[in-house]
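Below is a filled-in request sheet from our internal design queue. Each sheet records the structural input a requester submitted and the sequence that came back. We keep these sheets so that new team members can see what a complete request looks like end to end.

REQUESTER: design group, bay 2
PRIORITY: normal
MODE: inverse folding
CHAIN LENGTH: 515
BACKBONE (tokenized):
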């Protein structure tokens, strides 16, 4: 049985070391914890707790806390995570204190010190699940001069485009909070089907003249992955004000990039009913890509304009003049919304339904502003009911859900099911598991969704003749190629004669001519 009294002393020691609990408040919080753990008196004795000062993450203490809660009937097995989050929230600085400290550090030591403070707090109070994140599979794929980053995320559920689309028409209910991004989640208890948020801490700021807040993502797809969220519960949109908001963000956080998902189903990420952006301290693969074709705009001579040498269709703008780059970026956003190019299959709208949107992504390099605008279109046809410029059906076994901002920039977040499935496929290629085409044709078979890919791999690599490492490499290489093809599918202007002419036509529409 877990010693609850000793556990309280461990929690207090941890909070003083990592959660900024002041020694003056120790007695107060000891009594709070006694009540929460249903104890009547504290630990009486001496014990060496110095090892706690060396903990990188709170996993050990959190596990002990959850075990105690279940053992003593404080929480059911399925509720233990809610209880540990609640306790870690109690021991964390209040949101107001967190904000004050962040802004003090920003003023006195710079934005990096302020971000280090908030990120460390978010890890140490168990909001950012650092240990779980480390279990994700990660690798890079060098495709000529381009690089793709691929992760198999073990904590992110796979979503369906049709379910995501429903959010746009879903009526706001009287439920509280309205959605999982709302400001009102701060401190919310949650339940078995809704994540607790007692230990979340956010930073308030102004973007585009509106109230926003910033938090780090518990999923953390990349380094210091953060989410900027509007305090107003309103649907995603991409308009001129979006440009000002992302530029306000990078002026405040010059150490981070920020981008918005396109505001339409299929091409717009998984949450469309609350305006938010994603950013962080990671240089995305798209950012490392060069310029394929340079352009010049006489209306904005101080701006470098080009088509990015990337799989999908992206325009890059660079300038030290914020006012000018903002004006040009707004022009791109506005012109794209109404652009149609029938030879490329691009239609701004059909039957009154809008199809064009884009993803503006901003960052700074010293004094220079850089904005990448990925143009997107979500039109569907009988041949491609899930989206013409979406992952085509032959690739749905790897990625079926929408290709949002992060994937569009070259970092693929693949469903956790692939960890086991890819290993099973490798076993077939190495001969550890016999290849049974008939069994794979059964819809109940765990590998049914991969049957075509497996058949292709078996033919290509002579089933059973690869070593375990060779088999693993072969499967991973196939995933790499599929990911690159998916990004090519999302390109509204393909890398062929028709696509190049269509892209050129749009560049003329925004007043840019080839150099």
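RETURNED SEQUENCE:
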């Amino acid at each position: 049985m877990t010693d609850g009294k000793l556990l309280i002393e461990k929690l207090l020691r941890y909070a003083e070391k990592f959660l900024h609990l002041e020694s003056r408040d120790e007695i107060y919080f000891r009594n709070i914890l006694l009540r929460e753990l249903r104890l009547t008196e504290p630990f009486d004795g001496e014990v060496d707790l110095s090892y706690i000062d060396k903990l990188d993450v709170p996993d050990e203490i959190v596990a002990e806390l959850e075990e105690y809660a279940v053992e003593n009937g404080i929480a059911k097995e399925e509720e233990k995570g809610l209880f540990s989050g609640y306790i870690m929230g109690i021991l964390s600085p209040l949101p107001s204190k967190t904000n004050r400290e962040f802004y003090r550090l920003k003023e006195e030591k710079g934005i990096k010190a302020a971000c280090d403070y908030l990120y460390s707090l978010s890890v140490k109070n168990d909001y950012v699940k650092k240990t779980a994140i480390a279990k994700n599979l990660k690798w890079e794929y060098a495709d000529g001069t381009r690089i793709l980053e691929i992760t198999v995320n073990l904590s992110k559920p796979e979503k369906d485009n049709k379910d995501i689309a429903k959010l746009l028409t879903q009526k706001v209910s009287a439920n509280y909070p309205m959605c999982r991004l709302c400001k009102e989640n701060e401190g919310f208890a949650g339940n078995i089907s809704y994540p607790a948020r007692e230990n979340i801490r956010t930073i308030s700021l102004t973007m585009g003249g509106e109230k926003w807040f910033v938090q780090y993502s518990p999923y953390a797809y990349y380094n210091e992955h953060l989410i900027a969220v509007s305090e107003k519960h309103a649907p995603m949109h991409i308009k001129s004000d979006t440009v000002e908001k992302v530029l306000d963000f990078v002026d405040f956080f010059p150490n981070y990039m920020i981008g918005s998902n396109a505001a339409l189903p299929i091409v717009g990420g998984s949450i469309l009913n609350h305006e938010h952006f994603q950013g962080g301290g990671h240089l995305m693969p798209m950012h490392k890509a060069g310029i394929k074709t340079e352009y010049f705009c006489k209306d904005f001579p101080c701006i470098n304009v080009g088509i990015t040498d990337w799989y999908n269709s992206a325009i890059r703008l660079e300038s030290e003049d914020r006012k000018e780059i903002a004006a040009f970026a707004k022009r791109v956003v506005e012109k794209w919304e109404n652009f149609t190019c029938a030879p490329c299959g691009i239609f701004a709208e059909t039957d009154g339904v809008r199809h064009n949107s884009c993803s503006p992504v901003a960052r700074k390099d010293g004094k220079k502003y850089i904005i990448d605008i990925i143009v997107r279109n979500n039109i569907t046809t009988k041949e491609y009911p899930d989206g013409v410029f979406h992952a085509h059906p032959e690739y749905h076994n790897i990625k079926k859900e929408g290709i949002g901002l992060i994937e569009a920039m070259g970092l693929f977040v693949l469903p956790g099911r692939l960890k086991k499935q890819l290993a099973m496929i490798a076993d077939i290629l190495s001969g550890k598991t016999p290849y049974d085409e008939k069994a794979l044709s059964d819809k109940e078979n765990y590998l049914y969704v991969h049957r075509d890919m497996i058949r292709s791999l078996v033919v290509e690599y002579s089933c059973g003749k690869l070593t375990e490492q060779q088999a693993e490499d072969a499967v991973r290489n196939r995933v790499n190629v599929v990911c690159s093809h998916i990004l090519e599918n999302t390109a509204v202007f393909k890398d062929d004669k028709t696509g190049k002419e269509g892209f050129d036509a749009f560049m003329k529409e925004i007043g840019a001519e080839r150099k």
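SHEET NOTES:
- The mean pLDDT is 94.
- Residues 4-91 form one domain.
FILED BY: M.R.
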